[in-house]
Design brief:
This protein has no helices and eight strands. By secondary structure, the protein is mostly beta strands. An eight-stranded antiparallel sheet has the order 6-5-4-3-2-1-8-7, with no helix packed on it. The radius of gyration is 16 Å and the shape is globular. It starts with a strand and ends in a 5-residue tail after the last strand.
Length: 135
């Protein structure tokens, strides 16, 4: 039976630290996110940037590994992001890397959507996921 999509909510705060640049990128950062809500734990990863954000045209790619619980299930997942800004208009793809789940998160797939970012830096996230049957 195909898992039915579920919608869950989460929040995160992020700490970015500059890292050694690599050829082809304008910047490289390490990141650490602290997650709350239906997704609880910590993710760590790398972000590479390109373009000129001051002119409204830039992009980034990021990969991060999450360790914690999702809707009460524990394990790890990898998230991947592609963010673009063209003429000041942003687009974002934020997905769970297929096959990246471990433990009780094995087989989880889906997307994440960043909504509002609060004044205190808390990012509001809506997740549309396929959760495998736990049996």
């Amino acid at each position: 039976m195909t898992p039915q999509p579920v919608t869950l909510s989460a929040t995160f705060t992020i700490a970015l630290s500059p890292d050694a640049e690599i050829p082809g990128s304008a910047g490289r950062f390490t990141m650490e996110k602290t997650w709350g809500g239906d997704l609880r734990g910590v993710s760590r990863g790398t972000m590479l940037t390109a373009g000129d954000p001051a002119t409204g045209s830039a992009g980034y790619v990021a990969t991060e590994r999450f360790d914690g619980t999702l809707d009460g299930r524990s394990g790890t997942l990898a998230f991947q992001q592609l963010g673009l800004m063209a003429a000041g208009e942003p687009t974002l793809q934020y997905v769970i890397a297929p096959g990246s789940g471990s433990g009780e998160l094995q087989g989880v797939t889906g997307t994440l959507e960043i909504g509002a970012i609060d004044d205190d830096g808390v990012h509001q996230v809506t997740m549309t996921l396929n959760l495998p049957d736990p049996s």
